[in-house]
Amino acid sequence: MRTKLFVIIIVVIIILIGWGSYTYFNTKMTTKQLLIVSTTTSLYETGLLDILKVEFEKQHPSINVSFISQGTGLAIQTAMRRDADMILVHDPVRELKFLQDGYGVNRKVVAYNFFVIAGPSSDPANVKGLSPTEAFTKIKEAGEANFAIWVSRGDDSGTHAKEKRIWKSAGFDTTELRTMSWYLEAGTGMTATLRLTDEKNAYTLVDLGSYLNNYANENIKLGIIVDAGKDILNVYSAIANNPKKTEVYGSNFDASMKFIEFLVSDGVQQIFADFGKDKFSKPLFNPYIKLLERGNNQELIDWIQDLAYYDGIECPLHYRYEADDLYQVIHKELIIAPIILDFQN
Amino acid sequence: MFETFIEAIHQAIILIWKGDPEVFSIAIRSLSVSGLATLLSCLWGLPIALGLALSSFRGKKLIRGFFNAMLGVPTVALGLILYLLLSKSGPLGIFQLLYTPLGISIGQSLLITPIVVSFAASAIESTDIGVKDLARTLGASRFQTDLAVMHESTWGIILAIVASFSRAFAELGVAIMIGGNIRYVTRVLTTSIALETARGEIAFSIALTIILMIIVFSLTFIINFLRRT
Amino acid sequence: MSSHLHLEKLNKNYEDLKALNNLTFDAHQGQLISLVGVNGSGKTTLLRIIAGLDLPNNGKIIFNGKELNINDLRKIATLVFQKSIMFNTTVFKNVSFGLKVRGVDSKKIRNKVFDSLSSVSLQGFDSKKASNLSGGEQQRVALVRAFIIEPQILLLDEPTANLDPSNAIIIENMIKKILERKSCIIVMATHNLHQARRLSSFIAHLHYGRIIEFSKSEKFFAQPENKITQKFVSGELQF
Ligand SMILES: Nc1ncnc2c1ncn2[C@@H]1O[C@H](COP(=O)(O)OP(=O)(O)OP(=O)(O)O)[C@@H](O)[C@H]1O
Ligand SMILES: [Mg+2]
Predict the structure, then answer these.
(1) Which alpha helices (H) appear in chain C, and where do they start and end?
(2) What is the pLDDT of residue B224?
(3) Are A142 and A220 within one domain?
(4) Which residues of chain B does A249 touch, with a Cβ-Cβ cutoff of 8 Å?
């Protein structure tokens, strides 16, 4: 009786381990090329990338794309250590550094959206409809008069960096603000920060995806108070690893370039435009290439280029590598040309 | 809060009942990755435990102390160190283990080795020393004596193995740092829970937690049941 | 050829304590030597050394003219412990252990184990868990387990302590049977002087690590030479 059970246990263990090794070898020995994209959590958590994966692998059956999602800083670090083949992030300053240090080439701006200032629907600081800097200023004043509370992410994430920049352009120093009683620091992830904000009936800066998701799941009751303005613009770019730096274990440069071309292709730009509509009745992202093509919102284009271009160029010439097609003047045919070519062979 | 919890239990039941294929494959991956980790750690952990428990030599206390101290090693710390080692630009980069299930297994096996060693050594030590003398006086060789002593402490050793499996199964740091939480490849229960929590899918992540706990508890339950029979 | 055990000037110290002090004696095949003496006089210590479980600090153990080391001793001698120890498994596996480690084939083991068990009225006990047996039954298992490997030296440490008189008789009869075969040397520690008288060829009186009287059973009781032994057998020994 007992030995029988023992045998059963051992068999179960062996099956599990067999399965484990099988899954391991299956992914490892696959003849497919493995493309690893290092990206930020806020982008990954929306679920958009899962859709892109399916679509990309449909178009490129020989490539298996995987996403590693980390904080922006770590995401870039991962690529610098060559553990990822490309990055998809939203921090123009650190992206430039990545290019300058020789780790990346062929930067391409692909999409944008706006951070939002979330707060109690009663809006005690009365900031609805103001520009982000004006709103920050008024929230500070209300805070000092004990009308309002601000919750800062406080964890050095991309969102936190953004918040600090807005405080700065409004003329305040966050090291000073930290000492004030109306300014709280959560020091954790976005969901936890939102819940804290909700409990305190406070204001906070949050990326649109996190806000909508938590709102839809009834984790929070906060409303969107400010949702547009140059200061809360959020621009996503893709950068391939510099193949000259990744020669040691072979590079996936070709695959990375295919993915970047894929991101700016018409179809994917449309996916950006649609994603989130069904669940939140508004899109989480806006396609940048489409914005350029439409060309009817020059103010927004200027904002984006001001924020995310380097001296008016999305990727300076010496940071480009065998990718001139990618930077042709915006014209549908030219952008999707590489993909069409790919289909033919 | 209470509503979230009800909702979570409801979701957990649906996930299990309908057999959501992705959740199922994640759970299986968790089991096999941590199962392999446990097997690996036993491979070297049990001989070390035997050596520590059955022989006496200089520095034995020091080694025991080392493994006892390592029992509480933070998983993220170990994960970070292993990440730096296994990274393509790290010293062990050539093995290309980063972001693979085998990489997680190896990381977890290191994490749980102290549990296997310390718990199994204690189990072996706590068996009557008379058993060792008895085996010897009946003519057993050194190896046969060790086997007899091990046999006496079978349940203690099994509990050590189960405890280390549970630890590997429920840890997050190594799985996320080494595995990277890649969907369909290295996503396990704990990394999914972390992801879903961060996404604000609180109910779903509690549902996953419930599944994780069901697996851990039923394992403990089965072992206890077998032990009684 | 009949075997011969000679112990020469054995010493065993536990820190300051001399548990065995220049101890010397002889035993021949077919004999049973009883060790008697007060608690702590060194009986168990001596048996463990002969069994090869502990090392003496100095002195020699010579068997058939050859000095033996600890490993040789473990091959020819086996000890039945004062406190009976069972492997945490069935009676069958307990009794068969010594044969199994000697590589005897399993069919032969089965026959031998079943024969031995029935010879001590333990037939049907083979699949029982050894630790669930009564003290008397466990002691029988322990004795069978030791004797089944046909040792050249059988060492018994108070085999009937903790047993009721009828169980003690059962054990004594087993020992007698073993003795009749004259196949081994038996050294037995006991506190039961009547038992020593009934079973022994020679009796050794151990007193604080020394043998102070070593004589034939009848003489030991009738006219021991040592004064302490005289008091010991008459029950007048004072501490
Ligand atoms: N491992 C040990 N460490 C220290 N002292 C020991 C050890 N084993 C035995 N002794 C001491 O050696 C002496 C002899 O002990 P031993 O067990 O041989 O006595 P014994 O004659 O068998 O006594 P009893 O009749 O109580 O069984 C005792 O004083 C005991 O305390
Ligand atoms: Mg004793």
Answers:
(1) 43-50, 70-76, 91-101, 106-119, 135-147, 165-181, 193-199, 217-222, 227-234
(2) 84
(3) yes
(4) 88, 93-94, 96
